[in-house]
C-alpha cells in the first residue's frame, strides 16, 4: 500500500483535530503499517476511501477508535522512573497528608493520564498502601484513563508477565501479587479495588469538566505526543482539576517551562515536580 504525503497529512490532521495527538512526517511509515491493518480489516483498497469512511460513515467513532488503539504506544512497567516515585512517596505525599490531617480531612485523589495497561496506577496504589499510616481510615481514589480501549481491558484484568514486574521489590511482589500460572502475576484485589479505569480522550473538554479536587495528577510520557497548543490545553485542564497545593508529575523528558507559568516549580531530591 502506498501512503502519499497528501493523504498522510489529511489523516494526521483528522487525528489531531479529534485527539490533539500530533504526528510529524517522519512517522509516515509508522502510520502506514497500522493504517494497512485497519484497511485490510475493513476491506478498503484506497486510503482516500478509508479517510472518507472515518469522516462521514463512522458517526460513533468505532473505526477511528480501532485505529487509535493501534497507533498509541503502551510502553510501561511497574515502578517505572522509580526516583520520581520516591519523591512522590516520601516528600509530596507526606506534605499533602500532613496538611489534610491538620484540617481533619482523610481523602486522597489521584488522576493517572495515559494509564496504558495499568502498571502505573497499580504502582501508585501499592505506594499509597505502604505510605499512608492507618490506611483503612483514608478514602483513596485513583482514576486512571487512556484513549486506547484495548489496554484498558488488560488493565482491568490486572495480570502481567515477568517483564512488567521486573522492578517490583520482592516484598511487594509477595504482598500484592498472586501467581495464577507460571510466568503470570495478578494484582491483588486490595490494590485493584483502589483504581477506577475509564476510556477518555484528554482533548474532550466535556469529559473532564466535572473532575476536581485532585491531590496528584500523573501524566508521565504522554505530552510528548502532543504539540504545544494541545499540551497547553491539556495542562490548563489539569490545573483546574488540582486542588491548591496539588502536584503534577511529568515524564523525565517533559517540561512545563514552555507550556504554562501557572505552576510552582519544585526541586525535590533532584527531581522536578510542579505544584499548583
Question: Explain this structure to me?
Answer:
With 276 residues, the protein is α/β, with parallel strands linked by helices. The protein has two domains: 5-71, Chemotaxis receptor methyltransferase CheR, N-terminal domain (Chemotaxis Receptor Methyltransferase Cher, domain 1, Orthogonal Bundle), CATH 1.10.155; 82-275, Vaccinia Virus protein VP39 (Rossmann fold). It is built from eleven helices and ten strands. The protein has helices at 5-19, 28-42, 47-56, 62-71, 82-102, 119-131, 149-157, 170-176, 189-192, 205-208, 228-241, and strands at 107-113, 139-146, 159-160, 177-178, 185-187, 195-199, 214-219, 242-250, 264-268, 271-275. The strands form two sheets. The protein has a seven-stranded mixed beta sheet. A three-stranded antiparallel beta sheet has the order 3-5-4. Strand 1, helix 6 and strand 2 form a beta-alpha-beta unit. Helix 5 (82-102) packs across helix 6 (119-131). The radius of gyration is 20 Å and the shape is globular. The chain starts with a helix and ends with a strand.
- Please bin the fraction of helical residues: 40-55%
Q: By CATH's scheme, which homologous superfamily of the largest domain applies?
A: Vaccinia Virus protein VP39
Mean pLDDT: 93
Helix and strand run: HHHHHEHEHEHEEHEHEHEEE
**Which runs of at least 5 residues are low in confidence (pLDDT < 50)?**
none
**End-to-end Cα distance:** 49 Å
Number of domains: 2
Report the top-level CATH class of the largest domain: Alpha Beta
Portion of residues in beta strands equals 15-25%
Radius of gyration: 20 Å
Q: What's the total helix number?
A: 11
Strands, total number: 10
Strand order of the largest sheet: 6-2-1-7-8-10-9
Q: Largest sheet at a glance?
A: 7 strands, mixed
Remind me, CATH topology of the largest domain? Rossmann fold
Q: Which structural category do the helix and sheet elements fall into? A: alpha/beta
Gross geometry: globular
Q: Mind telling me which CATH architecture of the largest domain this is?
A: 3-Layer(aba) Sandwich
Amino acid at each position: 500500500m502506498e501512503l502519499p504525503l497528501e493523504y498522510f497529512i489529511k489523516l494526521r490532521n483528522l487525528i489531531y483535530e479529534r485527539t490533539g495527538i500530533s504526528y510529524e512526517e517522519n512517522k509516515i511509515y509508522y502510520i502506514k503499517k497500522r493504517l494497512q491493518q485497519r484497511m485490510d480489516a475493513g476491506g478498503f483498497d484506497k486510503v482516500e476511501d478509508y479517510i472518507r469512511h472515518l469522516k462521514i460513515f463512522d458517526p460513533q467513532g468505532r473505526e477511528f477508535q480501532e485505529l487509535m488503539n493501534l497507533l498509541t504506544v503502551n510502553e510501561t512497567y511497574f515502578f517505572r522512573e522509580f526516583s520520581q516515585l520516591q519523591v512522590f512517596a516520601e516528600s509530596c505525599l507526606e506534605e499533602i497528608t500532613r496538611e489534610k490531617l491538620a484540617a481533619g480531612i482523610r481523602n486522597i485523589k489521584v488522576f493517572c493520564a495515559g494509564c496504558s495497561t495499568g502498571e502505573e496506577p497499580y504502582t501508585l496504589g501499592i505506594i499509597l498502601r505502604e505510605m499512608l499510616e492507618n490506611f483503612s481510615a483514608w478514602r483513596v481514589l485513583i482514576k486512571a484513563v487512556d484513549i486506547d480501549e484495548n489496554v484498558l481491558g488488560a488493565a482491568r484484568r490486572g495480570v502481567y508477565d515477568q517483564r512488567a514486574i521486573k522492578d517490583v521489590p520482592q516484598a511487594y511482589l509477595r504482598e500484592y501479587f498472586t501467581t495464577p500460572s507460571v510466568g503470570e502475576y495478578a494484582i491483588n484485589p486490595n490494590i485493584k479495588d483502589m483504581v477506577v479505569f475509564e476510556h477518555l480522550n484528554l482533548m474532550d473538554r466535556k469529559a473532564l469538566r466535572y473532575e476536581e479536587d485532585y491531590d496528584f495528577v500523573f501524566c508521565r510520557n504522554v505530552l510528548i505526543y502532543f504539540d504545544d497548543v494541545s499540551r497547553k490545553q491539556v495542562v490548563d485542564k489539569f490545573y483546574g482539576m488540582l486542588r491548591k497545593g496539588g502536584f503534577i508529575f511529568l515524564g523525565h523528558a517533559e517540561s512545563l517551562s514552555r507550556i504554562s507559568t501557572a505552576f510552582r516549580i519544585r526541586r525535590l531530591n533532584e527531581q522536578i515536580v510542579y505544584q499548583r
